[in-house]
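Notes to self after the call with IL:
- keep both proteins in one doc
- input above output, always
- annotate only the second one for now

Protein 1:
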Amino acid sequence: MTIPFNKYLEIKDNYCLSYFGEDKDIIAEILWARMYIEKELKGIKVFIACNDAFKNEMHGKRNIILESKMGNYAGKMAHTCNLEKKDDLKALLVNAKIPIPENF
C-alpha cells in the first residue's frame, strides 16, 4: 500500500510498541526501553499501546495509547511492533542495534 508523501512526512517518525497483556513488569520494561530507543534513534517518537487495565499507571505519561483508543490512531503510525513477552522487546533492541544495558 502506498501513502501520499505528505502523509508519510506526518507519520514517518511515529513508532508504536504495543503490549496488550497484563504483566506489569513488561510494561515497566517497555517504558524503560523507550528512553534508549529514542536516544539511539534520534527523531523517533515511541508510542506505547497497552491494555486498558494500565490506565492508572500510564496516567500522565507521554505518548500512551490505551487499547480501547487504538482506533483513533489508525494510520498515524509508521510501524507498530506487537510485543507478547519480554524476549520480544529484547529482540527488537538487538535487531535495531540499540545497546542493551547489562541489567536488562
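Protein 2 (the one to annotate):
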Amino acid sequence: MILSISKTELLALLEMPEARAMIAEIAAEHVLQGALGRGRYEHFDIDRLQSLAAAISSVEFVAGAMPRVARFPNGDEFLKAMLAIPAPAGLVLEFGVFRPFHWPDRGCQA
C-alpha cells in the first residue's frame, strides 16, 4: 500500500501515540522478517541468524581494533582513495583476487 500525504500531515500523524505505536509495530515486523528471517510467530532462519552473528562479530572486531580506519561506501571509492596515495618507491599496492585470471590460450576457464 502506498500512501500519499504531505510532510505536514505526516508530522501531525506522528504526534498521535496510536500512529507511533502502529509505525513501531510495522518496523518491528520488518526487522524480524528482514534481519532474523521470521515473522513474529514463526521459527528463526538459522542460516540467516548465523550470517547476522558473523556480521556482528566482524563489526565488533573492526570497531575495537581499527576505530579510526577510513570506511568507504563501495569498492570504487576505496580504489580511488588508495590510488590517490603516493606509494613510496619500490612498493606495490595489492588488492587481492576475487577470481583468478586464466589465460585463454592455455585451455583454462575463469
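Annotation: The CA atoms of residues 99 and 105 lie 18 Å apart. DSSP finds four helices and no strands in the chain.
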